[in-house]
């Protein structure tokens, strides 16, 4: 199976003409035809004939100077506008929406020569952590089809873990890249707010939304990040901070680095099996020369409330643009979960409650940012679980409103702070993947990738394939 | 504990331009009461000395020259609309005749 190889290996084989992009694209479609009817990782799959033709052209036009991702098959969460390719954000309102322009991140990947296979399934508008709240078919976890793959970028994580694509672009508002990466045994990076342009990303909550890469390994993520990042004049929140050649800085020792374990992230509500797995990872980090130190986040316990009050207020405002006039269908087509989120956001913003709820949450956001900055004065990065529990059975979360939001306990606060966080595989329990996140200071993607890379050199969790794959 | 009554849900739905069925109003009232009940944990934290954060980017005052640049054509901008008239978007009537 070619797509099991790393971006670097594939690129090298393509350059030496030992393989070609047509082979890779054929493998993508074979895999999709074989298993995606059971997993539903795609909402839209491009016409195979058209894509094969594109691959032939790529093979002909490949140069020595071509990008490392030139000619590789990839997929993108359906939250990104793709010119003349249907873009639904997982919702029937946009069932027949064909964007007149493409997202900035999509253009960067396409300009580097990668080949789009299709648009990945997601919780509608990013509203969920299970890829069940989609108006298309709910997605299934390739490690156990009776369970959720996580979300909201669940389709992208499935496509990577089953090697349908070489990599994918996800989006993370409160955990939407990290959560499915953890549940499907893939690697995903929520970047610093502003590191990657949001232009053309269908907004969930604008002060939290982050564009990020999803892939099989930290090494692959680092190649993608250096291509995706940078300032965009059409996104005034994109950062002018210098883009580093992340891939060239991997492999540096982490001896003497201090890894903080935030005490509150390991408290009530965390599955003991997940706790045990992450504590086992600390032993590997210590072996690599890092020091482990406990740190505190007194207001962390309020994180979910603060996150939801802000995210839902913003989403009720963002989704008000769907009026069916310029594009899209009527508001009746919003799913149940989305209607509930709009109502709750409207409540938090409405006269009489805005001060008590929305503004208070914004003040608490300031406190969280301060606590976070203080913790990172004492250590270089933080190590934490991604989700409190193993992947739930399908139907379990969507029918329990409170349990559903508590899934974002460990991820949502990072978006409130705007910091980067890398989610990577850390082990298994009952045959189900467990991920961990390495969280850093703003624009410290380099450190996160270095630490994650060394961990993946010492372990093989990220190389394990789900049982649904016949190798 | 705050109860999100059916009347509150009905009013919020009107503000958010959502038509809800009686069954939905009933269900949302229950679900939102549970979620808002949980969120009330923030009620008693003292934040009187804290200022609000609405964004986390350090960038500010991003200026550019006011130049005309290529953008979407009228045809492209209108292509996803189901109702157009003389190259305009056609919106539902909101003013009634006397």
Automatic annotation (TrEMBL), chain A:
GO BP terms: translation
InterPro entries in alphabetical order: Amidase, Amidase_dom, AS_sf, GatA
Keyword rRNA-binding: no
Active site: 77 (charge relay system), 152 (charge relay system), 176 (acyl-ester intermediate)
Catalyzed chemical reaction(s): L-glutamyl-tRNA(Gln) + L-glutamine + ATP + H2O = L-glutaminyl-tRNA(Gln) + L-glutamate + ADP + phosphate + H(+)
GO CC, alphabetical: glutamyl-tRNA(Gln) amidotransferase complex
Single GO term (MF): transferase activity
Keyword terms: ATP-binding, Ligase, Nucleotide-binding, Protein biosynthesis, Transferase
Domain of life: Bacteria
Record has Transferase as a keyword: yes
EC number: 6.3.5.7
Residues annotated as domain Amidase: 23-449
PANTHER family membership: GLUTAMYL-TRNA(GLN) AMIDOTRANSFERASE SUBUNIT A, TRANSAMIDASE
Known partners and oligomeric status: Heterotrimer of A, B and C subunits.
Family: Belongs to the amidase family. GatA subfamily.
Function per UniProt: Allows the formation of correctly charged Gln-tRNA(Gln) through the transamidation of misacylated Glu-tRNA(Gln) in organisms which lack glutaminyl-tRNA synthetase. The reaction takes place in the presence of glutamine and ATP through an activated gamma-phospho-Glu-tRNA(Gln).
Protein name, UniProt field: Glutamyl-tRNA(Gln) amidotransferase subunit A
Provenance organism: Candidatus Roizmanbacteria bacterium CG23_combo_of_CG06-09_8_20_14_all_35_49
Gene it is expressed from: gatA
UniProtKB/TrEMBL annotation, chain B:
E.C. number: 6.3.5.-
Gene Ontology biological-process annotations: glutaminyl-tRNAGln biosynthesis via transamidation; regulation of translational fidelity; translation
Catalysed reaction, written as an equation: L-glutamyl-tRNA(Gln) + L-glutamine + ATP + H2O = L-glutaminyl-tRNA(Gln) + L-glutamate + ADP + phosphate + H(+); L-aspartyl-tRNA(Asn) + L-glutamine + ATP + H2O = L-asparaginyl-tRNA(Asn) + L-glutamate + ADP + phosphate + 2 H(+)
EC class of the enzyme, as a word: ligase
Keywords: ATP-binding, Ligase, Nucleotide-binding, Protein biosynthesis, Transferase
One MF annotation (Gene Ontology) recorded for this entry: ATP binding
InterPro entries according to UniProt: Asp/Glu-ADT_sf_sub_c (IPR036113), GatC (IPR003837)
Gene3D superfamilies linked to this entry: Glu-tRNAGln amidotransferase C subunit, N-terminal domain
Pfam family, one: GatC
Role, per record: Allows the formation of correctly charged Asn-tRNA(Asn) or Gln-tRNA(Gln) through the transamidation of misacylated Asp-tRNA(Asn) or Glu-tRNA(Gln) in organisms which lack either or both of asparaginyl-tRNA or glutaminyl-tRNA synthetases. The reaction takes place in the presence of glutamine and ATP through an activated phospho-Asp-tRNA(Asn) or phospho-Glu-tRNA(Gln).
Subunit structure as annotated in this protein's UniProt entry: Heterotrimer of A, B and C subunits.
Entry's family note: Belongs to the GatC family.
Protein name, entry field: Aspartyl/glutamyl-tRNA(Asn/Gln) amidotransferase subunit C
Gene name tied to this protein: gatC
